[in-house]
Amino acid sequence: MNMCSMCDRARDEFALGDSLPSGAVAQLVEHHDGIVGVARSSRVSSTSIEEPSPYELTGAMLAGFVAGEGYFSISRRKTAGSRVRSVFVFGVEVAERDSHMVMQLREILGVGSCRGVGPRRPGWQPTFVFTVNSIRAHQRAVIPFAERFLHPGLKRRQFERWRDELATYTRIRHPHDRAC
Q1: Is residue 157 included in any domain, yes or no?
Q2: Would you report the helix, strand and coil content of the chain in percent, each value rounded to 5?
Q3: Spatial CA neighbour of 105 closest among 72, 147, 141, 148
Q4: What mean pLDDT do residues 30-54 have?
Q5: Does residue 148 share a domain with residue 116?
Q6: Phi then psi for 150, rounded to 5 degrees?
Q7: Is pLDDT larger for residue 104 or for residue 4?
Q8: Do 30 and 63 fall within a single domain?
Q9: What CATH number has the domain bearing residue 157?
Q10: What b-and-e string marks burial along 98-136, b requiring 16 or more CB atoms within 10 Å of the CB?
Q11: Are residues 82 and 169 in the same domain?
């Protein structure tokens, strides 16, 4: 993508240590170079009015992590009366070396469990898994987090289908229980 001379000048000034001005030029440079490249100019984006809270910054970062490594699944299991029970799971599985990211997600959500898993095949890395299986935990933590922080895209669409099916399941299975 070619940039105009005004953008080139702003980029050159930023490279010399000057901060980017706010406005359309800064937004174009941020878009072109990626927000990481201009993060030194300010602790917040040029389009922000207030400094985001640590929760907002951490939540946004972890949403990107979830978009890349997370999953929303539904499994069906037969119970002892031939009834079918749905199990809704939100999870993240990463190489064990990235377990700190999973633990940070667990801390922000305040729900779920973590466990290490040995290598699935010889030569593979051990993994670290975070899962949430509780419908109430989904409703109180996972859904609000994903609704607030997941950006539009494939993972957001997967989440929305999963969330909608969970809502339908709880309405059918627990029609009088407003807590579910």
Answers
A1: yes
A2: 50, 20, 35
A3: 141
A4: 50
A5: yes
A6: -70, 130
A7: 104
A8: no
A9: 3.10.28.10
A10: bbebbeebbebbebbeeeeeeeeeeeeeebbbbbbebbe
A11: yes
- The pLDDT tens digits for 96-120 are 999 999 999 999 999 999 999 999 9
CA distance 63 to 110: 15
For residue 172, give the H/E element and its range. Answer: helix 154-173
pLDDT grade, residue 175 (50/70/90)?
A: low
| 132 and 157 assigned to the same domain | yes
Query: Six-digit token pair at 51?
Result: 């400094």
**Does residue 132 contact residue 141 with C-beta atoms inside 8 Å?**
yes
Domain, as residue range, for 140: 54-173
Q: Do both 167 and 100 map to the same domain?
A: yes
> Number of folded domains in the chain?
2
pLDDT for residue 2 is more than 50: no
**Distance (Å, rounded) from C-alpha 11 to C-alpha 94?**
36
Q: Please tell me the predicted confidence (pLDDT) of residue 35.
A: 37
CB 146 within 8 A of CB 163: yes
Joined together, the tokens standing for residue 113 give 């469990």
